[in-house]
Design brief:
The complex is a heterodimer of chains A (443) and B (142).
Chain A lengths: L2 H26 L5 H22 L4 H29 L7 H22 L5 H16 L4 H4 L11 H13 L6 H25 L3 H10 L2 H8 L4 H20 L4 H17 L2 H14 L6 H28 L12 H9 L1 H15 L10 H11 L3 H4 L2 H23 L4 H27 L3
Helix pairs in contact in A: 1-2, 1-3, 1-7, 2-3, 2-7, 2-8, 4-8, 4-9, 5-7, 8-9, 8-10, 8-11, 8-20, 9-20, 11-12, 11-19, 11-20, 12-13, 12-14, 13-19, 16-20, 19-20
Chain B lengths: L1 H29 L8 H19 L4 E7 H4 L6 H13 L3 E5 L6 E5 L12 E5 L5 E6 L4
Parallel strand pairs in B: 1-2, 1-3
Antiparallel strand pairs in B: 3-5, 4-5
Helix pairs in contact in B: 2-4
Chain lengths: 443, 142
Amino acid sequence: MTETTLFFLGAAFLIMILVGYFSTVLICSDGLSNTMAWTMAPAVGMGLCSIIFFIARRPMFTVEFLLLIVTFGLWLRYRRKTMAQIMSAENRIPLVAVWMVAALAWVTLASVIWIQRAPYGGWDGWAIWGSHARYLYRAGPVWQQHIRNTAHPDYPLLLPAATARLWRYTGKEVPEAPGVQALLIAISGVLVLTTTLWELRSRAVSFLIPLLLIATPSYMSLAVWQYADVPFSVYILSTIGLICISWERDDNSRLLTLAGFTAGCAAWTKNEGLLFVLSTVVMILLPVFRHPAKTMHRAAMFLLGLFLPLAVTSYYKWTVASTTDIFINRTYNEVLMKILDINRYFTIAMASLRTAGSFGGWAIHPVIPLVLLLMATGVNKSSLRKGGWLSATGVFVLMAVGYFALYIITSARLEVHLTTSLDRLMIHLWPTALLLVGLVLKD
Amino acid sequence: MFIRIVKYATRVGLIAIAFWNIQAYTRTVLTLPEREVNATVYWEKAWDPIHLELDRIGYRIGDLGYITSRSLRGEPMSEAEDIRRAALYFVVIPLNLLPNRMDTPFVLADFSKEKPPQLPPYLVQVYDPGNGLVLLRSIVKP
């Protein structure tokens, strides 16, 4: 990689992060701290830049620079609000934070070596996401016709478009670029988990729990393999984190707009994101009978943020992508037979139990000491009753049930489908599971 | 006091387990083969001269047939060939690699494992960079 290439790649990442940061601060205003806004910036920026690339291919640079200038101008006007909040925040960092930062630095270094040695990532990384990115970049204006030649043309394009955008900046294909981007998002996920816990609980555990995410080998390896599962898990985590903060901060509904955007980005990343959007909307609307006006206001704010990424996803699905394989050549009878087959439920339950022990690729599973910690510190019952935690847990459960249901009716051979995907589906929910546990741990 | 010790011990235990798992991740990274051995990196390099040749001819997008010695004999693809085909499919984008097809304007022959004694009469060699991949032109529909 030449110095010029490195410069333009750095510029692409910097612009992506700045766009994400300014947009996050502007959407959330005084609802988030500056630190939290920075940790969310890579994921929000990647979502925005990916959408810009998809909508405005040729004037991509113009649109990005315009957005950067406008958001920067607006940020200059409103920044005092957020800065005042940081100054008032409790900033006593516990010792475990040092361990976490050291672990993060070490894992980042190891991942960089991985990217250098296997720049094209793992099988799905190049066969699906890399192929899509190449069609977007190499096929020019006729990409829509030719992307249909890929293995899964129905898969949404957040990651491929973000990769193709990086190549537009460098002026050529840099094979390491998507790996670095995925690593950045994985690190951002760890930091989102840390800041969410720190903002809501401000305890040593805010650094201890994210340490477990860093120490999940599959989380890091799926990122450097350039699979979409890690960015997807980061969007789920960000959405859930924002919902929790929104509930706990006097029902700050502006945060729900950003949560809507990150949920939409999840749908723009993977097909499973549509299930996530549905689950989140259901949980936001659930209190409609108790507090109709408040709930409708919350839902409206969430849908406001959701609109753009969901519209882009829908447009892509309707105009370019073919039908998702789960819906191809299905008959009512075949699906009904599968629903009524009790053996399928048993097979999925057993596979889930087995995979729960191995999906992280751990040498030692952290769940036993985590349970011990829960027993030793105790559960904060008031946290269990908080609307944010309940909504987040509801989304988590709906997602798990949705995944189970998809396996029940899958058109693929069940055993093969489970073997090739169940561990990745668990990674989708793992950072959120850690957040939910971290939120209920007693001081 | 006892609770405090248990709390402390579980925290230390969690940190220790985390670092043990990080150590496992590090070992995986250190056992990765060198970049040059990576299959996709290898095929990228092998494809490069043919890509340049096709670029010179002006064939930049469209279908590209794919054959091996086995497929010329009418045998099904072996597992190893299938893996190579998948890698090549990624490498040749935006050309669309079509296995066992010879009716496309150009055909990519993967003779890296075995070279056939002679080519079928409707396939003409265009370019052979000597790395196992050969660019052929289809002259009549088989």
